[in-house]
Amino acid sequence: MISERSVTGLATEQLSAYRRMRNQKIKTTLYLGDLQDSTPLMTPAVVVCGAAEGPMLWAQATIHGPEVGGLAGLIELTQTIDLADLKGTLVAVPAINPLAFRQAARLNPYDGLNMNRAFPGDIGGTFTEQAAARVFELAVTADCVLDLHSGGDRAVVPHYVIYHDDASAASTRSRELAHQLGLGIIWRATDDWLSGALFTRATKAGVPALIVESGGGTLDQRQVRTFVDSARRLMAGLGMLPGDDGEPAAAPIEIDGCAFVYNRRGGIYMPHAQAGDVVEEGDLIGRVVDLLGDVVEEIRNPKGRVCLTAVPVPYVPVESGHMIAEAVMVKTPTGSVQPLTGGKRG
């Protein structure tokens, strides 16, 4: 006889009920799977029900364990939001991948998978695939999905937004919302390697979805505020909050088509270009020096005009084959970009 166990926590029917609730903040949990001792793996969630009817936003962070800036941003957002101002429902999950979070690891320690490549998931698959299936089932019941990322502890990214560009109605709405954030860099992603990302799969399921990236390295309040401000601007754009819904940047860079740049020599990484910089083919990105300070390699941009959407933190030790830059082709004319130095990879 098989022993049945009932697990409480977020479920699709609960989310439907939360849409009808008013003026409440509800602390709950999300079930992701079972551990070796048969206990359930749960992660905390907060459901914020506003004073009036409106859309539901699913907001999550820390799908990669070291990327805690979005986690801090969601905590601040849920603690400071005024219920009287809110129309609709915010579902916030600060640590959507708790096993990776506990180990400050990018990948799930059980199966070595990147959760942000595992959507829409597989309830009969590995641990990460099952967890992704449970998350996806809930996330796509919302009217919009927001996934917060950073560069973690070893990389730096500028403050920018990504949406999946497939010309669908959900993609078109995602693009509108991306522009309303008022950021200087917009990645209109068509890259195949992002096909298993939550924002891609949610868009294909008919739900507008964005990734917001910001910062990395040493986390500070300025980085945290970028996540809070972007979430609030998105909610204003959705009609959930009053106020500034974000004017488009004066000349936002639109980018797509990513290439990764790796080093060949090991040593200490010495930066030249910053995250968010636009560089031409052949431009210097950074140098690797040995432990005596001698330059052993110069890393240059190998392709066209690109925006650097991720670079290592300064002076980090690197082995051969370390990712030195995430370089994304610029698709529109650009001016100077002021990056938030502080990293990522979606």
Describe the structure.
This protein has 346 residues and is of the alpha/beta class. It has 7 helices and 16 strands. Helix 2 (69-80) packs across helix 7. The protein is globular. The termini are far apart.
Estimate the strand proportion.
25-35%
The overall strand count is 16
Mean pLDDT: 93
What's the main sheet like? 5 strands, mixed, barrel
- H/I helix tally: 7
Question: Gap between N and C termini, in Å?
Answer: 44 Å
Q: Categorize the overall geometry.
A: globular
Uncertain stretches of 5 or more adjacent residues:
334-345
Side-by-side strand order of the widest sheet: 6-7-9-16-14
What is the multimeric organization of the chains shown?
single chain
Determine Rg (CA atoms, Å): 20 Å
Element layout with pairings:
Blueprint: H1 12-20, E1 24-34, E2 40-49, E3 52-61, H2 69-80, E4 87-93, H3 98-102, H4 127-139, E5 144-149, E6 155-164, H5 169-180, E7 185-189, H6 198-204, E8 209-215, H7 221-237, E9 253-262, E10 267-271, E11 278-279, E12 284-289, E13 295-300, E14 306-312, E15 317-318, E16 323-330
Parallel strand pairs: 3-4, 3-5, 5-8, 6-7, 7-9
Antiparallel strand pairs: 1-2, 2-4, 6-8, 6-14, 9-16, 10-12, 10-15, 11-14, 12-13, 14-16
Helix pairs in contact: 2-7
Q: Quick summary of this structure?
A:
The protein is an alpha/beta fold and 346 residues long. It is built from 7 helices and 16 strands.
